[in-house]
Design goal:
Radius of gyration: 18 Å
CATH superfamily of the largest domain: Hypothetical protein, domain 2
Distance between the termini: 32 Å
Largest sheet: none
CATH architecture of the largest domain: Orthogonal Bundle
Length: 205
């Protein structure tokens, strides 16, 4: 089952039994854009995720805009061959410049079928690329492959939203894990709602 408008409606109906998520559905259901970060170019999609790693939301937007301007009309092969210095000139660190080029090289050489792979297989494959960890792989699953049942416990904003909205100790797996599992098979939609909550500073009280 993939994330689309039809499954989004089913997810809202299912998740509305959770009083917190129902509160967020009422507020944000018309604002959730499932295609907001979709990109059919996997190399670009992962490059944007690399840029987002460990920087503020505002900084990521600025650097992504500069990156988009820098690579405008360039082929994947041309992007792969950009110098590290060229990428650093727009605010991308040397390490991230290397990681981005690793991603383009991987997809240049690979014919891996991500659409037919399970979630765990996708994570296992992507984390072979130096610079791509579990978090980036999970974001790829949600926003690019449109997988419907992903929750990233490694996402700080998501976990912070969980802490504020549910008033629980996010270090206590005995409380966190059953809550997350209660949203299956629509964990990705719960994630979208919780992200929106933290972005808009609108919480369940």
């Amino acid at each position: 089952m993939e994330l689309n408008q039809e499954t989004l409606k089913k997810a809202y109906n299912y998740l509305s039994k959770d009083s917190c998520l129902n509160h967020l559905i009422i507020r944000f259901s018309q604002e959730i854009d499932i295609l907001e970060r979709f990109n059919e170019n996997y190399s670009l999609a992962l490059s944007y995720l690399i840029i987002e790693q460990q920087v503020s939301f505002k900084a990521a937007i600025t650097i992504k805009r500069r990156f988009i301007e820098k690579i405008d009309k360039l082929s994947n092969n041309q992007i792969m061959n950009l110098s590290d210095k060229n990428l650093q000139s727009i605010g991308i660190s040397f390490r991230k410049a290397t990681y981005i080029k690793n991603v383009f090289k991987y997809f240049n050489d690979s014919n891996y079928n991500f659409n037919d792979a399970t979630n765990q297989e996708v994570i296992k494959e992507l984390t072979k690329i130096k610079g791509i960890g579990v978090w980036s792989s999970e974001m790829f699953l949600i926003f690019v492959l449109m997988r419907i049942n992903i929750f990233s416990k490694g996402d700080l904003a998501l976990m912070n939203s969980l802490k504020i909205n549910y008033k629980i100790d996010i270090k206590d797996d005995s409380k966190v894990n059953p809550l997350i599992e209660s949203w299956s098979p629509f964990k990705s939609v719960a994630s979208l709602l919780l992200w929106k909550s933290i972005e808009e500073r609108y919480f369940f009280t």
